[in-house]
Fold ATP-dependent 6-phosphofructokinase.
Amino acid sequence: MDLSIPSSFFETFSSHSLLHPLFPSNFQKLRSFPINSYFNLKSRKFPSKSLSWRQNCNYLRSQISSGNVDDVFVLEDVPHLTDFLPDLASYSNPLKKSQAYAIVKQSFVTSEDVVAQKIVVQRNSPRGVHFRRAGPREKVYFTPEEVRACIVTCGGLCPGINTVIREIVCGLNYMYGVDNVLGIEGGYRGFYSKNTLTLTPKVVNDIHKRGGTFLRTSRGGHDTHKIVDSIQDRGINQVYIIGGDGTQKGAALIYKEVEKRGLRVAVAGIPKTIDNDIAVIDKSFGFDTAVEEAQRAINAAHVEVESVENGVGIVKLMGRYCGFIATHATLASRDVDCCLIPESPFYLEGPDGLFEYIELRLKENGHLVIVVAEGAGQDYVAQSTHAAYEKDASGNKLLLDVGLWLSQKIKDHFVNVRKMEVNMKYIDPTYMIRAIPSNASDNIYCTLLAHSAVHGAMAGYTGFTVGPVNSRHAYIPISRVTEATNTVKLTDRMWARLLASTNQPSFLNSNDMLQERSIDGETVTVTKTT
Ligand SMILES: Nc1ncnc2c1ncn2[C@@H]1O[C@H](COP(=O)(O)OP(=O)(O)O)[C@@H](O)[C@H]1O
Ligand SMILES: O=P(O)(O)OC[C@H]1O[C@](O)(COP(=O)(O)O)[C@@H](O)[C@@H]1O
Ligand SMILES: [Mg+2]
């Protein structure tokens, strides 16, 4: 049987390899190609044993070219150290001797175990994309004594970071007998500008009860060469990187450089973002905690405004480019009359605008609460204030304060135009919702993430991110979580549920332009956006 893959195939489909369903043992062989995916054809039409591998490849190529890929199973695989170090020794997983795991029905995840990205399917729909299931493997590529791991945290804070740190340290120690773990202080730049901390189960024992990050964090300062030099100099062979989209992009560069230098270093990313904007994974850790904490601010706003006449409460929540926190906090609360998010442009003046809606709610109910995500209406604010955007050290756009701007606009409109007194209460709890310890369910989630990362690195996987996909933890290629960000889909039922629960205008009957309008003798600029 000819198992070679035609090079022309890789010219056309360089990121894919193939796995013949009848020859699963080919898997290891195929891993040595510079690839991150394979296809497993389940088609009845697919070649049988009598066809060569080359013929199989050609068949698949023709199927893909003709768009007839309905019966193709796709695994978006993550790299493995043996991809570039083929002679690496492997060892029996020490978990085999663990008392705790002795009763587990399936102690080890096999190479056949995958997690489907799409679980709502129709009878004839394609099998679609899958990821490797996370968890312990029968073989590991490090002995406990030779592991020298490090952990770094980068970007903004998020509830649960300390739990992840704690569980990486304790997971490595309790499950694999590893006792050499370093903490890199102050984000990426800590690799080359600071000393390290020694992390033991005793040192990290209580840290999950505190908010923030025990290792401190920073933005900017990613220098791939200096970081990998430091990894090499310190003899580190497992790198655990906790951070958001920017951090994961940095992790991908570190992994690439490690591979280029041929180092036996496993690079594992743990996705962190309060905004919940990381693609592919179900939800980011700390998000639930943040939504819960946001309830306190919304409650406070509601109590304030229902106690006065014409009370208007505005609560600003985090969400740079997406409104997940605002959406979920609104839906959970039921006290919110209007939720403004970056994905759904809004306008103030005119029919079905925000002012009209506020006036209606004040007349009907005497008060209202608005939740606004910090990234909402940014272009509107910039146009209206002629402000220019600045950037933070990581290159992220610094946001203009939509909460303050909105409060002022509403006050001006009602006092000057409508000749009505409003009682404005503006609450900005943005940092308060992310600087707290994680709640119970986020704590468990953080534990699973940390343990999945530890199992993956011990098993020799590298350049991967961990996370739940349809509730099952998986190893996801880093590029998959950085190439796009997650946003609230206005066409999904979740947003419809929110509109139904608040009864706010959808702001959709408009076109994308600025208009000058005369209202009560005053010329005002109205943004109309679809
Ligand atoms: N495109 C990138 N390539 C390499 N490093 C990056 C990239 N974007 C951000 N980083 C680094 O990742 C770290 C955190 O990024 P940042 O955007 O602040 O937070 P987050 O990872 O939470 O999105 C910073 O040290 C930053 O320099
Ligand atoms: O003031 P900081 O620390 O830069 O953080 C503000 C930003 O951080 C965030 O929490 C997101 O941070 P990340 O990109 O690090 O996940 C945004 O919601 C917010 O705009
Ligand atoms: Mg980010």
Notes: The longest strand covers residues 311-317. Residues 1-49, 511-530 have pLDDT under 50 and may be disordered. Residues 287-306 form the longest helix (20 residues).
